[in-house]
């Protein structure tokens, strides 16, 4: 059981490494995780030995190259970003609004792709690789609506639903009621719940079996949202259907044909992603 206890500590340690803070020292890790310095040092060294972390100057640690290798393994298996890239770009080209692709990862929303809008005034949106709490985002509501309700209740049972704006849902019964509606309608909204000036619409992205594997959203400045809402819902649903078609088609191809296909980003100029 001692080995299992050690493994369970590795996740929170790796979670410390973010886009905003990508290097940590032993004492900082010990303080952040409320553990002895010797234990933090032992965990860090273990992760260095298997390549998930690397040592930097002056006793600092950062993510190791093994993570990139594992990411490539995941990409070659699911290839969700590559299969979705052209669809997201076409969506922005036609409608001019910022578009995101997100997944649920360890109970938070992880943004895996983004194409910035082309209007004079656009939503900058979440950065690729950033995480947000799901209750205040349209993509988060889509993803939560398509998992077992007990997992949602368990996640929020002993924690506060943080308020970001005056419209943020902050009580569990209201959130569950909204998730029921999202499940029925297949569309979720963020009406200024994370940032007051931004409204979003999101829909599920499904795999070849119909399981929800991601959520696609369109983010719009509040003054453009109401008049465009119906069109944006239709556009998002069409894009999600096209991604599902591409996933199904890719799985029908021989493995060597799929793995040998270059990333579509290498074939043409695209909108800057950030």
From TrEMBL:
Q: Which UniProt keywords apply?
A: DNA-binding, Transcription, Transcription regulation
Q: Which residues form a coiled coil?
A: none
Source organism, top-level taxon = Bacteria
Task: Indicate the segments forming the HTH iclR-type domain, all copies.
Answer: 4-65
Question: Where in the sequence is the signal peptide annotated?
Answer: none
What InterPro entries has UniProt attached to this entry? GAF-like_dom_sf, HTH_MetabolicPath_Reg, Tscrpt_reg_IclR_C, Tscrpt_reg_IclR_N, WH-like_DNA-bd_sf, WH_DNA-bd_sf
PROSITE patterns (UniProt xref): HTH_ICLR, ICLR_ED
Where's the IclR-ED domain? 66-253
> Annotated region Disordered: where?
255-274
> What is the name attached to this protein's record?
IclR family transcriptional regulator
């Amino acid at each position: 059981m001692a080995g299992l206890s050690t493994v369970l500590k590795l996740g929170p340690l790796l979670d410390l490494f973010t886009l905003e803070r990508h290097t940590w020292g032993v004492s900082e890790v010990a303080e952040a995780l409320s553990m002895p310095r010797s234990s933090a040092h032992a965990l860090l060294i273990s992760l260095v030995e298997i390549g998930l972390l690397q040592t930097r100057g002056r006793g600092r640690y950062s993510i190791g190259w093994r993570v990139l290798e594992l990411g490539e393994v995941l990409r070659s298996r699911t290839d969700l970003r590559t299969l979705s890239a052209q669809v997201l770009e076409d969506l922005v080209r036609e409608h001019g609004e910022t578009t995101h692709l997100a997944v649920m990862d360890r109970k938070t929303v992880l943004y895996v792709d983004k194409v910035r809008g082309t209007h004079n005034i656009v939503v900058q949106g979440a950065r690729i690789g950033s995480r947000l709490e799901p209750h205040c985002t349209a993509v988060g509501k889509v993803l939560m609506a398509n998992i077992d309700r007990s997992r949602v209740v368990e996640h929020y049972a002993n924690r506060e639903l943080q308020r970001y704006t005056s419209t943020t849902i902050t009580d569990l019964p209201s959130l569950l009621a909204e998730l029921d509606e999202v499940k029925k309608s297949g569309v979720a909204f963020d009406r200024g719940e994370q940032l007051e000036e931004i409204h979003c619409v999101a829909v599920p992205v499904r795999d070849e079996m119909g399981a929800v594997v991601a959520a696609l959203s369109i983010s719009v400045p509040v003054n453009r949202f109401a008049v465009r809402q119906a069109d944006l819902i239709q556009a998002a649903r069409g894009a999600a259907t096209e991604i599902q078609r591409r996933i199904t088609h890719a799985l029908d191809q021989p493995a060597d044909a799929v793995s040998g296909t270059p990333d579509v980003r290498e074939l043409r100029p695209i909108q800057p992603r950030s």
